[in-house]
Write a structure and sequence with these properties.
This protein has helices at 2-60, 67-86, 89-121, 126-191. It is mainly alpha-helical.
Amino acid sequence: MSGFFLTAADAFISVFEKGGIVLMLFFGLYLFLCYLISDKYFYFKFYFKNDFEKFKESIDHVSAPNKFLFEAIITKEIATIKSKVTKNFSLIKVLVAVCPLMGLLGTVTGMVSVFDVLAIAGANDARSMASGISKATVPTMAGMLGALTGMLVVKYLNDYSTESIHSINDYLVKFDLRKKRSDKKSEILNNG
């Protein structure tokens, strides 16, 4: 069993050696992207419901001496929960967009390496050129895979975010209708 892990680790190190420094930079970027995605995923799966319940409770129990202050408190509560829903979402989208650019950077640095070999050794040294070509293709492949998986996850998280904001808006509509009914009842009782 330990032989399998050693072989896998050797293969992993070999890929990094073939990909060069750009692949290592991409790997760091991708780990950070995965951290942000998992943070957002766990927020929607485990914490949003609790935050939404707290939001509903705080909206239901708002008491303010005048309408202006009441609306200010409601607006603050809405902004707080919507900021939690959309937190880091723009950064995730930017990092997904940067993935293929990192792959392109790997392509350029790998091709520069190939041209250096051509300038020094000529076209006869295929082994030296192969090293540059792998430095060009491995980061490109990694960048494309990172972008594709990232786009799928962003779509999934965007659906969660949209659904969450719709839940908030639906609750606010119901809250507004209840408030108007309660205001009418108070008006009728006061005038009656």
